[in-house]
Fold these 3 entries.
Entry 1:
Amino acid sequence: MLSGEGVVLHDGSLAQAVRASAAVPGVFSPVEINGRVLADGGMVQNIPVETVLAMDADAVIAVELRLPPGDPALLQTLTGVLTRAVDVMITQNEHRSLALAQAKVSVDMSGFSVSDYSRVKELIQLGYKSAASQSAGLLPYAIQDEAQWQAYLAARDARKHRRPDKIEIVEVTGADSDTDGRLQRRLNKALRGPLNLNKVDTQLTQIAGQGQFDRLGYEGFTQDGVPALRVTTHEKSYGPPFVDLAVNVDGSGVAAFDFSAGARVTFMDVAHGGGEWRNDLLFGSSNLGASEFYQPLGQSPFFVAPYVFASKFARNSFTGLTRVAVFGDERAGGGFDIGYDSGRRSEFRLGYELFDAKLSPLIGSAGLPIISGSTGEFRARYVWDGQDSPAVPSRGTRVVTTLSRVLQSPGQPHPIGQFEVQTSTFAPVSDKTSLFFDIAGGTTFRGSAGPLEVFSLGGPFRLGAYLPYEFLGDHYAYSSLGFRREFYRLPQLVGGRVYWGGWYEAGTAFGTAELNPGPVVVRGTFNLGFIADTIVGPVGLAGSISPTGQSRVNFSIGRVF
């Protein structure tokens, strides 16, 4: 990328070489190898016939991916002109290379674009069909004699490196010495012993998921006669710290609208101890400032996590089914958790939280009560996340359970205990369709919850035909059952799949200080809508109607962190 010259990689890591060759400018980051910044060499030699001839090949069979002619309508913008200019340059160097090949297979790429990674199976079949239809030009290079063919296979097999049965040493390179040492200790503990490539992939996926590296690779080697594994890391060039922007829009018709924007700043491997310092800022209809320091305790799965926060958001107040006010819910405080990380899918935390809170009317009649004071509570929380996506899952189960002991809180005369469980399960029934089932519930046992701890229902996926906080109680139960089906795929650089679906919800919130448990009224909602997985987060739109006639249109754009 610096000199503009073509670079041929003859030795070294095959994984790094392939990664550099696939580094399309503007799409994937370049790769630095031996002091040179390398990217896809398409503009220099997109079909490397010259390179293969220089390797003393007897014959070269080249594959031409034939693109359709340019569309004049795309030349009306500067971007379109520049893109087409690059296409013309690459096409011309392809023609020069193809003229040097002894044979070629031409593949008609009409109907495909450079971002159609998800259509790889169709592309493979197209390649087979194209080669079969042009077999006359390929047959002169076929091996006709069976004995000669077997000898060729044997010679090719002899050149393959044999996979070791076990790994005695794991070496990590690529980052600073502290980071390499920390990862090396972790991987030696996890991978030494019989070689299990699935386990290697799992460990590296977990490390990559922590966000510090943009790529990791591994290769086997022998050190003093001992089988070893070398893991190569590459830290992201733009961090840490990492800055993630967030935009979130939620609405239930014109009656409830929430727009917020902000950022998360994350520092990794703080003080070279493997800690993570996460800082969140959010402004708009909802406001949040929060900071948490997550610190593993040595090489053990235990960790500590002190945190502070300040937030303000709006919550509705109802008399019956009539909204009479909107309150501002302000909280500021902090806490300390001790936890156990049992793997990339689950976590257990035990801690204490203390904060000051204030509930005061923002919109509504004068004279509504203002509630303020301190809240202190012990809390135990367990999370199991087996779903395949945090935004729009297709399979798996997520479970969150929380047990708390609230010692004091405004409007709460006595300490209370609370328990809540939330589950979500997606089960695929075909390549494009999944069924999903949610169930949740909470109880204050025999106590009465204060206004800050009371459970609520209403809003999207919490009885969508009603507004948020429309139903409050010391106890609640909720469930939903539905399906979701893929009907479109966005371009690769814009997002992923688009789904439509339908589901039915039922839920109840009951029990108050005056009536405990009080009457139990179960309400239901029919829902129909769509959701898209985009680069800005999930985008959804759904219409909801209850059997008693309440209806609402809910929409959301983006995801808060």
Entry 2:
Amino acid sequence: MVKFLADATTDEILGVHIIGPFASELIAEAVVAMEFRASSEDIARICHAHPSLSEATKEAALAWTNARSTSECLLRAPGSRQSTPHSPHRVPFRSQLDALLAQRGYSLDAAQERAAVRLQQLQDEWSGYKAHRSNALKKLLVRPPVPRGVYLWGDVGRGKSFLMDAFFAAVPLIRKTRVHFHEFMRSVHAELHELRGTADRSTRWHAGLRGAIA
């Protein structure tokens, strides 16, 4: 068993509990991470050999990171009305982002600012799309173009997950899923494993993926 203890605000690793065989070997990675004041997300994003015992460290860090992301998604701008998790009416993305930045004492650099502007634009596009299809009759008669997504690229630690957490909470959609890349790839391998032995497993998997995205 591996359990990470990290600062709720900065995500800096404060300690690691390891119980089981080879604990003295597994703890070395955590010791190095703490020496360099790494975050649990840093460990979660590092590729670990598979199959190996070190995967337990990665999974524990990923579990904490996911739990923390979920908690942050529930934050709202100060003074704003709380909305339920299933409500399509959300606080503007930029308001949520500014609240999180102020809470942590962060500021955006030029590249992050451009990403934030584009994500706010995407939220506005989705809000407009939903407004044009606000009831059953409009959904039947009005078919506006579906907003195109945004692809963010950057080095580890550039704030992509931070931006996406705020955007996910703000985007005015009820049916939506927030999945980290590592989690997504684990599900891909699991689904392909279930389809092994079928002649068209790749085709069937792609069909299922398209259905999930749609």
Entry 3:
Amino acid sequence: MSLTIDFERELNAEQIATVHAPDGPLLVLAAAGTGKTRTLVYRVANLVARGIEPRRILLLTFTNKAAREMLERARTIVGPEVSGLWSGTFHHLANRILRRHAHLIGYSLDFTILDRDDSIGLMRICIKELKLTDREFPRGEVLVALLSGAVNKRRELTDAIEGYFGDNKVNTADVLSVLELYNKKKRIQNAMDFDDLLVNGYELFGRYRETLASYQEQFLYIMVDEYQDTNLIQADLVDLLAGKHRNLMVVGDDFQSIYSWRGADYRNILTFSERYPDARQFKLETNYRSVPEILALANVCIAGNPHQYQKTLRSTRESYRKPVFAALRDGGHQARYVIEQIRNLHRSGLAWRDIAVLYRAHYHALELQLALSRERIPFVVMSGLRFFEQAHVKDVCSLLRVMHNGRDQIAFERLLCLLPGVGEKTAAKLWRQLGGNFNVSDAAQRLKLSKVISTAARTGWGKIDEILKDCQTGGQERDPVKIILDFINRFYDLYLLDHYDDHKRRLEDLKGLVGFLAEFKSVEDFLNEVALVTNLDVDADRMDEKAEDCLRLSTVHQAKGLEWRAVFILWAAEGMFPSARSLNEAGGDEEERRLFYVAVTRAKDDLYLCMPSVRRDQNGGMIFLTPSRFLLEVPPENLKTEQIGFIA
């Protein structure tokens, strides 16, 4: 087609070089805020303008929304001809291919795709059929997540089971039998779960080379976005499809590879040039987002990782304020400081939605969420739930509520529903049998509950009953810290393992809650504070429904790809960010550094790095903190330090 595009007007020199890159394998290293999407769009437009049929171009992204947006932008440049282009997620591509060829691997073409809820439901059926519901056994959602992790990381199921459950008493053979039955039932029902789409697509190409050859011939050009987030199966699928023409462009940033926990393998991008020795490499380093002072800090922090493609961000913007390093007293002081600065920014003209608070773990924002609620500052937690709304936090608090108020039916029934075989109806029936009151100090009433409860639930209740008994004999009834620690150690940690695929994150939340509890003298004081703030949150939610202008609170993982004019990073202290737990895992230091880099590069104008000097441990004692290792590497002249220390 005849079309003239003024690339010099629309793109910078780095982008133009990438868009006009010759045929063959191409590795495009696109640093944060450098116009990666724009470059991909113009690459597509350039190919179509050169006369390449859109049906011979494959564009792979990690969300269908991203693919649609890229196509819309390309359409505005080259017109409707681009519509025939193949684009979407890896799963979308696999589904499209399998709808034509699934019969070759034993499925009919009208196979059903199971969503997550469907998969969990089918897994529960398998557990029930094998009669594993009457004792402690992992729930369906846990086994679905375990199987998905094994598939995406290409781990043997036995290794995945042992790695997930560790030293806990879970019968590996029973778990394997459930997973085998689950896979068998999917076949019988002509159904595939989300992971099966990739696995079966790969199997199809491996077994039927003529089918693979037809797609290799069709896709003259292949482009992959966010390549650093691909897993092994996705990378292998791309390599297969590009096997003939080898016109493969992968675009990504190894600096922003932060999803290893869900199967992403950054080695795919690091070893690309080994798999394609003739690959040309292009770098996008001109940043349009952040001021130079923020990029200077980001460049220093990320340079410490040894295994990466070194890149240096350069800003197109004028010099502005230095990032602020605020040395504070504790979590409460940090919350007050952040609120003061946020109010100043808001008064200066920033909308609430232009400001974000980022953190490494959910519990890091605990004190801030409470303070924001008290101050009536509108905020939204991007995970969807505020700290005390989360199920695991409510579960733990239900024990404290029952101990504080024997007439609290809601808390009693929630606590009982944690036991095997106890549902809402059974819990309500038990409440009525106890006369609508449960006095934890009454040994006779506790004994009555032990007798009327089902056999399946008796062991679990026995552990909770021991805690209640110890509280009466040991004088712990007014110490929420000891109560919750006993509850977690004796009962709830195993419950988390069996019920949640992110049990480690939830346990980390609860340990943070324990440190927060140490600030209170009694159960009553703590519950009163939570109740007050929860009611304020309800009022705030009503206001939030009417106005989208809210402060954003987010983990760093959820913030990737987003940007704000002002960003606060909480708990920039060693052991908090970087996470002590992650540092004990292979490659943990490098991924934590990448995560810190992602956090820093979300900020456009203002960046605040907050480091409380102390925090409470589980026993109520003080832990003295030091600055994050990533901050210690930053030259002092690159930061504005506010040594607020122990000022109240």
